Automatic annotation (TrEMBL):
Gene3D superfamilies: 3.10.450.50. Residues 37-119 form the DUF4440 domain. It comes from Dyella dinghuensis. This is DUF4440 domain-containing protein.
Length: 129
């Protein structure tokens, strides 16, 4: 029933680079300010949350800005990473995220630009609460 997700060996350096950035917006080494988050996102970025709601780029940036004004402990574990090249310099990264007892499957569409990696799209789907 489960798909067999094996990353092409030629994509392993990309997998390593993207794994270090996930979960998105939870890696302080990549920034904690609105300006940092803005720089991470493609101009057309949007996401579908685990609730199924769609969120605009501006809404996500507003939420992150508010969240980081009140730092909190954030315990999470990632596993089951897989990356696939979708088009030239465009990659789909999938993984599982465990936050406390909640488990979600995540996917992020990443674009490699001359500057850095940019998040184009992100989605989370609840497996269990």
């Amino acid at each position: 029933m489960e798909p067999r997700l094996i990353t092409d060996p030629k994509l392993l350096p990309i997998l390593d680079a993207l794994k270090s950035r996930e979960p998105i917006f939870h890696r302080p080494e990549f920034g904690t300010t609105r300006r940092d988050f803005d720089a991470m996102c493609d101009p057309d970025f949007w996401e579908v949350g685990a609730s199924g709601r769609r969120y605009s780029r501006d809404y996500v940036l507003d939420t992150l800005e508010q969240r980081h004004q009140h730092p909190h402990d954030d315990h999470w574990e990632t596993s089951e990473f897989h990356v696939r090249e979708i088009a030239v310099n465009l990659y789909l990264l999938t993984y599982t995220l465990k936050q406390d007892r909640r488990i979600t499957r995540r996917c992020t569409l990443w674009r490699y630009t001359s500057d850095d990696w940019k998040i184009v799209y992100h989605q989370g789907t609840v497996v269990s609460d």
